[in-house]
Amino acid sequence: MHLYNAWLPPAVAAETRRETESFAAVVRSVKETWRQDDPDSVFATLKWIAVIEVFVKAKSEVSPEDVRELLVFGLDLFHSSQNKLHVQVMMRMIILKFMILKGNAIQYVLV
């Protein structure tokens, strides 16, 4: 549990443990919205940016494997989004936020 959640009542604090599962579901959903055969489907991934930012701002405990999966996907999407600057900017923002939040996040991508 994150230090910020230590003040929560026990029942609410117990629910925060499900954040890992929720984040994994969000990562799966983001990946499912993008179809490589449809170049415009990259725009469909934008609706998940706000949801991912909630996990970042809440300093949620998330699995390193899910972070890696999101970072690798984000980089793939970034490179595939030629001439779609808005998508590239939003993905870059998420990638950078996770790299700042998880100081060693780059190791997830390189491993």
Secondary-structure map:
Elements: H1 10-16, H2 19-33, H3 49-57, H4 64-80, H5 85-101, H6 106-110
Helix pairs in contact: 2-4, 3-5, 4-5
How would you sum up this structure, described in words?
GO terms for molecular function: peptidase activator activity; proteasome binding. InterPro entries: PSME4. With 111 residues, the chain is mainly α. The protein has one domain. The protein contains 6 helices and no strands. Helix 2 packs parallel to helix 4 and helix 3 runs parallel beside helix 5.
Percentage of β-strand residues: under 5%
User: What low-confidence regions span 5 or more consecutive residues with pLDDT below 50?
Assistant: none
Q: What is the typical, i.e. mean, pLDDT? A: 83
Tell me the structural class. mainly alpha
Radius of gyration, in Å, reads 15 Å
Helix content: 55-70%
Query: What series of H and E elements makes up the topology?
Result: HHHHHH
Keywords:
single chain; 111 residues; 6 helices; elongated
